[in-house]
Structure formats: structure tokens, C-alpha cells
Amino acid sequence: MKIATYNVNGINARLPVLLKWLKEEAPDVVCLQELKAPMEKIPEKAITEAGYNAIWHGQKRWNGVAILAKDLHIEELRRVLPGDPEDEQSRYIEARVNGLHICCLYLPNGNPAPGPKFDYKMLWLERLKKRAAELLESKDPVVLTGDFNIIPTENDVFKPERWVDDALFRPEVRAVYSELLKSGWTDAIRKLHPMETIYTFWDYFRNAFVRNAGLRIDHFLLSPGLDKLLKKAGVSADVRGWEKTSDHAPVWIELDHKK
Q: Would residue 41 be called left, alpha or beta, if left means φ above 0 and alpha means ψ between -120 and 50 degrees?
């Protein structure tokens, strides 16, 4: 079973790229982030015609997450990260697909740091830690994936010395990611590729993609037991080189889990 996560950076602006990638790669489940579209502007017809069922949590201009499943039923479980009833940003959605508990997230960027946006990011991370603990306690097979906006280690960024003051790389942010791993979650990419230079995001500026001056900020975390079913994991970096593409590339895993 192939599961992918992809920050599309505007689902309507990138729809041709998304549809081309879905046709070529045909993942069974897809988590999308940064839709940048309210519910009424989601291109549901095009996604359906591509063979995917979908649930969405859109938002005008910013944010937005979705879970797509190819010829599989999606049971929506929740569409808000618990812990702040006043948080109106569309950054989280959970569903059950083919016996797996799928959590799709778009974690706040947090820049500039320090500041209110960074404070929001840290509060969001505390909420995520609590939810992640609940998910582990459930003993469900859980995939926690999406754009974390966290660079976990120096091995996950081109020239880390340039990022020391950035909200994606600050010690307190990286510490939370480390805590998630210590609590039992497995970073799928690093399980199979522990030291390889792997990026998932390349800025549009300064010819970053051609220079491979990237970051690894899109992650797959697997609950205990599910990591034993992990067969392959990678990044479709070539998609980042397509015309009018997102600044992120799709990240994917293959699990020994029958459809």
C-alpha cells in the first residue's frame, strides 16, 4: 500500500501538476496540505474523475488539508486538532482508510521568531504532542504525516548555519520532534535512509532546486508496529522540477499492508 504526502501550495494553481502526478504514481492514499481554497473552490470533480475519494478541510487564501483515497472508503474521524476551540486555521484532519488511522497535518511556519506566530507554532506543537500521545495509547496503526515545518537535524538542511534563527530550525521546535520519536513514533524516511541527504522543499528563489539547496520538512511518522511493515520510503524530487509546480515534492512510503 502506497501512501503519499504533498504540500501542493495552492490546489487550483497546481491542479495540472497534481493530476499528472496522481496519474503517474497512483498512490493509494494521499495527504495534501496548503490547499489555499475554501470548501466551495475545492476541485472535487477533477479529483473524483482521477479516481479518488476525498475529504477536505479548506480555508480561504491560506492553509487547508485533505485526504484522498484511490478506490478506498474514507471515514472522517476529526478535522480539528484538539486543545484550542478558538483556533480557526484549517491545518489538521484525521480519517480511517483501509484499516489505517491517517492523520494529515500542516504545522504552522512560525516565522518571524520570536513573535506571536512562533508562539502559535509552539502552542500548536503542544497540542500535537498531546494528540500524538492519545493516538499511541489507542494502539491503532497510525500514520501521522504532512508538512511539519520542522527541520529535525543538521542533516536535513543545506547549510544549516544559515537557519539557526529560523522558526523551522530553532532548538525548541526540533526538541518537540525529537520527543515524538522518543515517545515511540518512527521517522519513516530516516528508518530506511538514516544518513542520506534527502530534501522535500526547495525555495523558488536563488535557483535552489538546481543547486539542491533544500530542506526536509515533510515527514511520515509511524506508530509502533506499523514501522515493521515499512518496505520503501522516498521523495519524488523530479516533480519539483515540473512546470508551475509546488515548492515541495511529494513524499511517499510503501507499507506491507493489503488493500
A: alpha
Domain range for 236 is: 2-255
Q: Which residues are annotated as a binding site for Mg(2+)?
A: 7, 34, 147, 149, 247-248
Q: Read off the pTM.
A: 0.98
DSSP codes of every residue in 112-125: SSSSHHHHHHHHHH
Reported as half-sphere exposure (CB side, CA atoms, 13 A), residue 27 has a value of 27
Under a CB-based contact definition with an 8 Å cutoff, are residues 43 and 183 in contact?
no
Asked whether the beta carbons of 220 and 143 are under 8 A apart, the reply is: yes
Spatial strand order of the sheet with 2-7 comes to: 52-57, 65-70, 29-33, 2-7, 251-255, 230-235
Q: Which residue has the cell 542533516?
A: 155
Which tens digits make up the pLDDT trace of 19-30? 999 999 999 999
Mind listing the pLDDT tens digit for each residue in 229-254?
Answer: 999 999 999 999 999 999 999 999 99
CB 32 within 8 A of CB 65: yes
Do 250 and 6 meet the contact criterion of CB atoms below 8 Å apart? yes
How far, in Å, CA of 56 to CA of 39, rounded? 7
CA atoms within 13 A on the CB side of 210: 4
Question: Domain of 193: which CATH number?
Answer: 3.60.10.10
Sign of the torsion angle spanned by Cα atoms 179, 156, 29, 44? positive
Q: What is the pLDDT of residue 259?
A: 77
Cβ neighbors of 121 (< 8 A, separation 6 or more) are 107, 108, 109, 110, 113, 149, 167, 173
Looking at the annotation, which residues are catalytic? 106, 147, 248
Structural domain tally of the chain? 1
Binding-site entries: 7, 34, 147, 149, 247-248
